[in-house]
Amino acid sequence: MRIHFTDRDIAHTGLKLETDLTWETVSSTQVLRHGNGDLSFGPWRRHVRELAVHDPDLRMALHTVMTAAPHWPDDLATAAFRQLRQALRVYRRRVIEPHLPIIEAGLCTDAAARIHEYLQCGPEGLLSTLGTATRWHPPVLSVDHPHDRDLHLGGRGLTLIPCYFALRHLVAPAGPVLVFPIRTESRLLAGGRAGGGQLTALLGATRASILRSVVGGSTTTRLARLVGVAPATVSHHTGVLREAGLIATEREDNFARHLITPLGLRVLAAGR
User: Fold this and answer.
1) pLDDT confidence of 69, banded at 50, 70, 90?
2) Which DSSP symbol is given to 71?
3) Hey, how many other C-beta atoms are within 10 angstroms of the C-beta on 53?
4) Cβ atoms of 21 and 107 closer than 8 Å
5) For residue 36, what pLDDT is reported?
6) Over 50: is that where the pLDDT of 50 sits?
């Protein structure tokens, strides 16, 4: 597939930093279906199989989702689609949401270098970092895709969505959206909760985890949930990171939102 950009499209192209649960859920079903995918998914596959042994609701949901995956119902009002939607809710609640801290850690780790590239080179720099399945030859982004076609953005720009569970690049022309797999090493770092040995040795495990988690912006409460420590402990560590110039904090009403700084991005990218 060839995606054609105008100057307006390039200006309107950006990276989505929030976890997209819809794409993660849909892509994860492909990971289960295609056992020959990235080996970093092996522990998750085994975990899902073990859960299904003791959870009849999950077994039924998996059967429904995996049966429907190759041909999602075209008519969203059909009984088949309502059954699929209920199965996806069970599936997401059982096997995706408990995995969210690792998913978000992987996405944040992967995004750090891309954001740094965006700050240095703008959207065109970002378009050159999407993996070997894409080739950026201005003004056209070529994507390895089952369908050989041309997509003209027409000034709408392109939303780039990193996906933890994606096995390949996915294009949704109506968005228009390009979903791309994060790097394998980003998944492995997140799965091990190590965040890179050098970064952990420099900052300590908790501060390194906090620094990764503020790539897309995060509140103190959300950081406490992601990192697994008390909000007061998060406040202490964010204070240290702020004094070091690695993060900045915006205060609004009764909550604080923490953001990574360009220096923090450089430290995080080097620590990978």
Assistant:
1) low
2) S
3) 9
4) no
5) 60
6) yes
Query: To 5 degrees, how large is the angle CA 68–CA 74–CA 77?
Result: 100
62 CB contacts (<8 Å, ≥6 apart)? 32, 48, 52, 91
**8-state DSSP, 171:** E
Amino acid in position 177: V
pLDDT tens profile 225-236: 888 899 999 999
Single-letter residue type at 204 = G
Q: Which residue shows structure tokens 């429904």?
A: 64
Q: Residues 192-237: pLDDT tens digits?
A: 544 456 677 778 888 988 988 887 778 899 899 888 899 999 999 9
The continuous run of DSSP H or E covering 268 comes out as helix 262-271
Tokens in use for 90?
């069970």
Residue 74 burial by CB count (10 A; 0-12/13-18/19+): exposed, middle or buried?
Answer: exposed
Contact in structure between 191 and 104 (CB atoms under 8 Å): no
At residue 186, the 3 state secondary structure works out as: helix
Tally Cβ neighbours within 10 Å of residue 93: 13
